[in-house]
Amino acid sequence: DAGITQSPRHKVTETGTPVTLRCHQTENHRYMYWYRQDPGHGLRLIHYSYGVKDTDKGEVSDGYSVSRSKTEDFLLTLESATSSQTSVYFCATLGQGGEQFFGPGTRLTVL
Amino acid sequence: DAKTTQPTSMDCAEGRAANLPCNHSTISGNEYVYWYRQIHSQGPQYIIHGLKNNETNEMASLIITEDRKSSTLILPHATLRDTAVYYCIVRAPAGGTSYGKLTFGQGTILTVHP
């Protein structure tokens, strides 16, 4: 792996509350990504970052925002959580050879 | 990025080679073939990638046809721990306007049985 940790690993929250997920990497990789994984949909890209303070949207970005104030941390925020955002969230970084390394995932349940 | 086609599921006996095919007939000249796998409830794991030459690492071998329209991932001696969903992905390298996005399809469910 690329020294990727995600926190929290599990979270249960209520509809309408803000939630922030953290991804931390130790390999100084430039690119970082947030995906969500749901049954029947596979992994879908939410947002990505190509450097500090440089981020852009993926295919399912509505309701999510991200921030990257330093190379090692990439935060995903659900501004007002909804039940449709119940999912498993994976962070990833891009290695030198173009391979992506994934974190262990965060299981989020929105009640 | 080029679309890929993989069988939905495959079985393999423990200790035998597992050969997982992937079709990518619309692949472009600068697109690489990547293989990942996902063991239940874990994050996807990178296995191997290649452009046009066959590749081998400690996990697997990748055979790409000469016309690059298909490839085969080979796990030489499958174990029960290789039971997972295997994804074949084609994409251009990251850099410039490309950000290395991976588009995951449904993959192949490989079941290794005793």
Sum up the structure in keywords.
heterodimer, A: 111 residues, mainly beta, seven-stranded mixed sheet, 11 strands, globular, B: five-stranded mixed sheet, four-stranded antiparallel sheet
Write up what this structure looks like:
The complex is a heterodimer of chains A (111) and B (114). By secondary structure, chain A is an all-beta fold. Chain A has no helices and eleven strands. Helix content of chain B is 0%, strand content 44%. Chain B is built from no helices and nine strands. Chain B has strands at residues 9-13, 18-23, 32-38, 45-50, 55-56, 61-64, 70-75, 84-91, 108-113. A five-stranded mixed beta sheet of chain B has the order 1-9-8-3-4, with no helix packed on it. Chain B has a four-stranded antiparallel beta sheet with strand order 2-7-6-5, with no helix packed on it. In chain B, strand 3 (32-38) and strand 4 form a beta hairpin. Chain B starts with 8 loop residues before the first strand and ends with a strand. The interface between A and B is medium-sized, with 24 and 20 residues.
- The ordered string of helix (H) and strand (E) elements of chain B is EEEEEEEEE
- What is the strand content of chain A? over 45%
Total count of strands of chain A: 11
Strand order of the largest sheet of chain B: 1-9-8-3-4
Alpha-beta content class of chain A = mainly beta
Biggest pleated-sheet summary of chain B: 5 strands, mixed
Total strand count of chain B, please?
A: 9
Number of helices of chain B: 0
Tell me the greatest interface. Answer: A-B, 24 and 20 residues
First and last CA, distance of chain B:
37 Å
Low-confidence residue ranges of chain A: none
- Helical content class of chain A: under 10%
Task: Give a quick account of the main beta sheet of chain A: strands, pairing sense, barrel closure.
Answer: 7 strands, mixed
The proportion of strand residues of chain B reads 35-45%
Task: Give the rounded overall mean pLDDT of chain B.
Answer: 91
- Please bin the fraction of helical residues of chain B: under 10%
What is the CA-atom radius of gyration of chain A, in angstroms? Answer: 13 Å
Helical segment tally of chain A?
0
**Beginning-to-end CA distance, first to last residue of chain A:** 32 Å
Label the overall shape of chain A: globular
Shape of chain B: globular
